[in-house]
Design goal:
Number of strands: 13
Number of helices: 8
CATH architecture of the largest domain: 3-Layer(aba) Sandwich
Distance between the termini: 28 Å
CATH topology of the largest domain: Rossmann fold
Helix content: 25-40%
Oligomer: single chain
Length: 239
Protein backbone atom coordinates (compact mmCIF):
# COMPACT_ATOMS: atom_id res chain seq x y z
CA UNK A 1 0.00 0.00 0.00
CA UNK A 2 1.29 3.48 -0.84
CA UNK A 3 1.02 5.95 2.01
CA UNK A 4 -1.09 8.94 0.96
CA UNK A 5 0.37 12.26 2.09
CA UNK A 6 -1.74 15.37 2.68
CA UNK A 7 -0.79 17.85 -0.03
CA UNK A 8 -0.90 21.56 0.53
CA UNK A 9 -4.25 22.73 -0.87
CA UNK A 10 -3.75 26.50 -0.71
CA UNK A 11 -3.59 28.47 -3.95
CA UNK A 12 -3.36 32.26 -4.17
CA UNK A 13 -4.82 33.97 -7.24
CA UNK A 14 -4.15 37.68 -7.65
CA UNK A 15 -5.91 39.63 -10.39
CA UNK A 16 -7.81 42.90 -10.78
CA UNK A 17 -10.71 41.24 -12.64
CA UNK A 18 -13.49 40.27 -10.21
CA UNK A 19 -15.22 37.94 -12.69
CA UNK A 20 -11.97 36.10 -13.44
CA UNK A 21 -11.24 35.66 -9.72
CA UNK A 22 -14.74 34.36 -9.04
CA UNK A 23 -14.63 31.85 -11.91
CA UNK A 24 -11.18 30.51 -11.02
CA UNK A 25 -12.09 30.25 -7.34
CA UNK A 26 -15.27 28.33 -8.17
CA UNK A 27 -13.50 25.90 -10.49
CA UNK A 28 -10.49 25.22 -8.25
CA UNK A 29 -12.56 24.79 -5.11
CA UNK A 30 -14.65 22.23 -6.99
CA UNK A 31 -11.35 20.37 -7.50
CA UNK A 32 -10.73 20.36 -3.74
CA UNK A 33 -8.36 23.32 -3.42
CA UNK A 34 -8.63 26.20 -0.96
CA UNK A 35 -8.38 29.43 -2.94
CA UNK A 36 -7.31 32.79 -1.56
CA UNK A 37 -8.05 35.69 -3.90
CA UNK A 38 -6.23 39.02 -3.93
CA UNK A 39 -6.48 42.22 -5.96
CA UNK A 40 -3.06 43.71 -5.23
CA UNK A 41 0.49 42.58 -4.50
CA UNK A 42 0.42 43.59 -0.84
CA UNK A 43 -2.42 41.13 -0.18
CA UNK A 44 -0.38 38.39 -1.86
CA UNK A 45 2.59 39.06 0.43
CA UNK A 46 0.35 38.96 3.52
CA UNK A 47 -1.03 35.55 2.56
CA UNK A 48 2.19 33.99 1.24
CA UNK A 49 3.23 32.90 4.76
CA UNK A 50 0.45 30.30 4.61
CA UNK A 51 2.81 28.27 2.42
CA UNK A 52 0.63 28.02 -0.72
CA UNK A 53 1.17 25.29 -3.27
CA UNK A 54 1.05 27.90 -6.04
CA UNK A 55 0.62 31.62 -6.68
CA UNK A 56 -1.03 32.90 -9.85
CA UNK A 57 -0.41 36.62 -10.20
CA UNK A 58 -1.30 39.21 -12.81
CA UNK A 59 1.69 41.31 -13.83
CA UNK A 60 -0.45 44.49 -13.88
CA UNK A 61 -1.74 44.55 -10.30
CA UNK A 62 -2.32 47.93 -8.64
CA UNK A 63 -0.33 49.24 -5.63
CA UNK A 64 2.36 46.57 -5.95
CA UNK A 65 2.51 44.96 -9.39
CA UNK A 66 3.17 41.30 -10.16
CA UNK A 67 6.83 41.83 -11.00
CA UNK A 68 7.74 43.58 -7.74
CA UNK A 69 5.62 41.18 -5.71
CA UNK A 70 7.40 38.17 -7.24
CA UNK A 71 10.81 39.74 -6.64
CA UNK A 72 9.97 40.23 -2.94
CA UNK A 73 8.71 36.65 -2.65
CA UNK A 74 11.82 35.21 -4.28
CA UNK A 75 14.13 37.31 -2.09
CA UNK A 76 12.61 35.96 1.14
CA UNK A 77 13.77 32.62 2.58
CA UNK A 78 10.28 31.70 3.75
CA UNK A 79 8.59 32.27 0.36
CA UNK A 80 11.36 31.81 -2.22
CA UNK A 81 10.36 28.22 -3.03
CA UNK A 82 6.69 29.00 -3.78
CA UNK A 83 6.01 28.38 -7.51
CA UNK A 84 4.64 31.40 -9.38
CA UNK A 85 2.63 31.53 -12.60
CA UNK A 86 2.44 34.99 -14.16
CA UNK A 87 -0.80 36.10 -15.81
CA UNK A 88 -1.14 38.84 -18.39
CA UNK A 89 -4.07 40.48 -20.16
CA UNK A 90 -2.05 40.66 -23.38
CA UNK A 91 1.01 38.83 -24.67
CA UNK A 92 4.44 40.45 -24.60
CA UNK A 93 7.65 38.62 -25.41
CA UNK A 94 9.60 40.89 -23.05
CA UNK A 95 7.13 40.13 -20.26
CA UNK A 96 7.43 36.41 -20.89
CA UNK A 97 11.23 36.59 -20.65
CA UNK A 98 11.01 38.66 -17.47
CA UNK A 99 8.62 36.12 -15.95
CA UNK A 100 11.18 33.35 -16.22
CA UNK A 101 14.04 35.63 -15.13
CA UNK A 102 12.09 36.30 -11.92
CA UNK A 103 11.76 32.57 -11.27
CA UNK A 104 8.25 32.00 -12.62
CA UNK A 105 7.32 28.52 -13.83
CA UNK A 106 5.00 29.79 -16.55
CA UNK A 107 3.63 32.89 -18.28
CA UNK A 108 0.01 32.62 -19.43
CA UNK A 109 -2.03 35.13 -21.41
CA UNK A 110 -5.71 35.48 -20.51
CA UNK A 111 -8.29 34.18 -21.16
CA UNK A 112 -7.21 30.97 -19.45
CA UNK A 113 -8.86 27.56 -19.59
CA UNK A 114 -9.09 26.32 -15.96
CA UNK A 115 -7.97 22.86 -17.10
CA UNK A 116 -4.55 24.35 -17.94
CA UNK A 117 -4.14 25.49 -14.34
CA UNK A 118 -5.24 22.09 -13.00
CA UNK A 119 -2.61 20.41 -15.20
CA UNK A 120 0.07 22.74 -13.80
CA UNK A 121 -1.02 21.98 -10.23
CA UNK A 122 -0.88 18.22 -10.76
CA UNK A 123 2.66 18.55 -12.10
CA UNK A 124 3.65 20.59 -9.06
CA UNK A 125 2.27 17.97 -6.67
CA UNK A 126 4.18 15.21 -8.47
CA UNK A 127 7.41 17.23 -8.44
CA UNK A 128 7.01 18.22 -4.81
CA UNK A 129 6.81 14.70 -3.44
CA UNK A 130 8.83 12.77 -6.04
CA UNK A 131 11.21 15.23 -7.74
CA UNK A 132 14.11 14.23 -9.97
CA UNK A 133 16.65 14.49 -7.16
CA UNK A 134 14.91 11.61 -5.33
CA UNK A 135 14.72 8.07 -6.64
CA UNK A 136 11.57 5.98 -6.35
CA UNK A 137 12.83 2.41 -6.13
CA UNK A 138 9.37 0.87 -5.95
CA UNK A 139 5.88 1.79 -4.82
CA UNK A 140 7.03 1.79 -1.20
CA UNK A 141 10.67 2.96 -1.30
CA UNK A 142 12.07 6.47 -1.59
CA UNK A 143 15.84 6.99 -1.79
CA UNK A 144 18.05 10.05 -1.54
CA UNK A 145 21.77 9.63 -0.99
CA UNK A 146 22.30 6.77 1.47
CA UNK A 147 18.88 7.20 3.06
CA UNK A 148 16.07 4.82 2.11
CA UNK A 149 12.50 5.30 3.32
CA UNK A 150 10.10 2.35 3.40
CA UNK A 151 6.68 4.05 3.46
CA UNK A 152 4.75 0.82 3.93
CA UNK A 153 6.58 -0.37 7.05
CA UNK A 154 7.44 3.12 8.45
CA UNK A 155 11.16 2.32 8.41
CA UNK A 156 14.23 4.38 7.47
CA UNK A 157 17.41 2.59 6.47
CA UNK A 158 20.90 4.00 6.33
CA UNK A 159 24.46 3.05 7.25
CA UNK A 160 23.40 -0.53 7.88
CA UNK A 161 20.65 0.40 10.34
CA UNK A 162 16.85 0.15 10.20
CA UNK A 163 14.97 2.75 12.24
CA UNK A 164 11.26 2.56 13.04
CA UNK A 165 9.41 5.90 12.80
CA UNK A 166 5.91 7.03 13.66
CA UNK A 167 3.60 7.98 10.79
CA UNK A 168 4.08 11.73 11.28
CA UNK A 169 7.84 11.39 11.70
CA UNK A 170 7.94 9.48 8.42
CA UNK A 171 5.78 12.08 6.67
CA UNK A 172 8.08 14.89 7.80
CA UNK A 173 11.26 13.06 6.80
CA UNK A 174 9.74 12.15 3.43
CA UNK A 175 8.99 15.83 2.75
CA UNK A 176 12.62 16.75 3.53
CA UNK A 177 14.07 13.86 1.52
CA UNK A 178 11.85 14.64 -1.47
CA UNK A 179 13.03 18.26 -1.34
CA UNK A 180 16.66 17.61 -0.43
CA UNK A 181 18.92 20.66 -0.21
CA UNK A 182 15.87 22.95 -0.28
CA UNK A 183 14.66 24.98 2.70
CA UNK A 184 11.07 24.09 3.64
CA UNK A 185 9.26 26.42 6.03
CA UNK A 186 7.73 25.14 9.26
CA UNK A 187 4.33 26.33 8.12
CA UNK A 188 4.60 24.51 4.78
CA UNK A 189 5.61 21.28 6.55
CA UNK A 190 2.79 21.65 9.07
CA UNK A 191 0.22 22.13 6.29
CA UNK A 192 1.50 19.07 4.41
CA UNK A 193 1.12 16.87 7.49
CA UNK A 194 -1.88 18.33 9.35
CA UNK A 195 -3.68 19.98 6.42
CA UNK A 196 -4.16 23.36 8.08
CA UNK A 197 -2.26 26.56 8.85
CA UNK A 198 0.13 26.33 11.80
CA UNK A 199 -0.95 28.33 14.84
CA UNK A 200 1.44 30.91 16.27
CA UNK A 201 3.74 29.35 18.85
CA UNK A 202 3.03 25.77 17.73
CA UNK A 203 6.12 23.59 18.31
CA UNK A 204 4.92 20.32 16.78
CA UNK A 205 7.38 20.45 13.87
CA UNK A 206 10.37 21.22 16.10
CA UNK A 207 9.44 18.36 18.44
CA UNK A 208 9.14 15.93 15.52
CA UNK A 209 12.54 17.05 14.21
CA UNK A 210 14.13 16.43 17.63
CA UNK A 211 12.65 12.93 17.74
CA UNK A 212 13.78 12.12 14.19
CA UNK A 213 17.32 13.38 14.84
CA UNK A 214 17.53 11.30 18.01
CA UNK A 215 16.42 8.16 16.18
CA UNK A 216 18.75 8.75 13.22
CA UNK A 217 21.74 9.40 15.54
CA UNK A 218 24.68 10.69 13.45
CA UNK A 219 22.51 10.72 10.30
CA UNK A 220 20.30 13.23 12.09
CA UNK A 221 22.99 15.83 11.44
CA UNK A 222 21.83 15.86 7.82
CA UNK A 223 18.73 17.79 8.95
CA UNK A 224 19.71 21.45 9.16
CA UNK A 225 17.78 24.13 11.05
CA UNK A 226 17.34 27.42 9.20
CA UNK A 227 16.79 30.10 11.82
CA UNK A 228 13.24 31.55 11.90
CA UNK A 229 12.37 29.76 8.65
CA UNK A 230 12.33 25.96 8.76
CA UNK A 231 14.47 22.95 7.88
CA UNK A 232 16.30 21.27 5.04
CA UNK A 233 17.89 17.89 4.47
CA UNK A 234 21.44 18.60 3.33
CA UNK A 235 22.79 15.82 1.13
CA UNK A 236 26.15 16.15 -0.58
CA UNK A 237 28.10 13.67 -2.65
CA UNK A 238 28.90 10.69 -0.45
CA UNK A 239 26.06 11.30 2.07
Amino acid sequence: MIMQYQTNRYIIIADNDDAFLANMKLFLEAEGFHVITAKDGESVLKNANKGPLLILINVNLPILDGWRTAALLKNSYSTSAIPIIFLSDKYSENDEVLSFELGGINYITKPIAPKIIITQIKKLIDQRFFPQNSTIESKNLIKAGKLEIDTEHLIVRGKGRSIKLTKKELQLLTILVSNKNRVISRNAIFQEIWGRTMEKGNRNIDILILRIRKKLRDMGNLIKSISRVGYKLELKDGN
